[in-house]
Amino acid sequence: MASPIIASLSWGQMKVQGSNLTYKDCKVWPGGSRAWDWRETGTEHSPGVQPADVKEVAEKGVQTLVIGRGMSEALKVPPSTVEYLQKQGINVRVLQTEQAVKEYNALVAQGVRVGGVFHSTC
């Protein structure tokens, strides 16, 4: 199953191929997507993306996981989260969200089993 293309991105809005929903923040993986609700794990801009935030996507068998830190890169990504993914043999890309979406879509086009977590505002 292929990872869905991120069809559009603007401040506070993301659309993913195969979903009729508009996401503010989202998680994507081969075969699916859903809203990323920070309240599930108590995530805040600092300390940022926790291993619990990426666990669901990592468990989908991804080779690479792209993290979008927001339009102004306000969302932090601590080393513990990167290490958590690397220990599972997953390549990690941490980028500003517009760049992260471009990278993610390029990896999808190359046939990589890619997943991502994206913050679409600050």
Largest sheet: 5 strands, mixed
Give helix and strand order, one letter per element, not per position: EEEEEHEHEHE
- What does the radius of gyration come to? 13 Å
Instruction: Give the averaged pLDDT, no decimals.
Output: 97
- Tally of helical runs: 3
Provide the helix percentage: 10-25%
Q: Order of strands across the biggest sheet? A: 5-4-8-6-7
Report the structural category: alpha/beta
Name of the CATH architecture? 3-Layer(aba) Sandwich
Q: Return the CATH topology.
A: Hypothetical Protein Mth938, Chain: A
Q: Kindly state the number of beta strands.
A: 8
End-to-end Cα distance, whole Å, is: 32 Å
Coarse shape:
globular
CATH class bucket: Alpha Beta
Strand content: 25-35%
Describe, in plain words, how this protein is organized in 3D:
- The chain has 122 residues and is an alpha/beta fold.
- The chain has a single domain (6-118), classed as Hypothetical Protein Mth938, Chain: A.
- Helix content is 24%, strand content 30%.
- It has a 5-stranded mixed β-sheet with strand order 5-4-8-6-7, with helices on both faces. A 3-stranded antiparallel β-sheet has the order 1-2-3, with helices on one face.
- Strand 1 and strand 2 form a beta hairpin.
What's the layout of helices and strands?
Blueprint: E1 6-10, E2 13-16, E3 22-23, E4 25-29, E5 32-35, H1 51-58, E6 64-68, H2 79-86, E7 91-95, H3 97-109, E8 114-119
Parallel strand pairs: 6-7, 6-8
Antiparallel strand pairs: 1-2, 2-3, 4-5, 4-8
Helix pairs in contact: 1-2
Subcellular location: Cytoplasm
Keywords: Cytoplasm
Organism: Cricetulus griseus
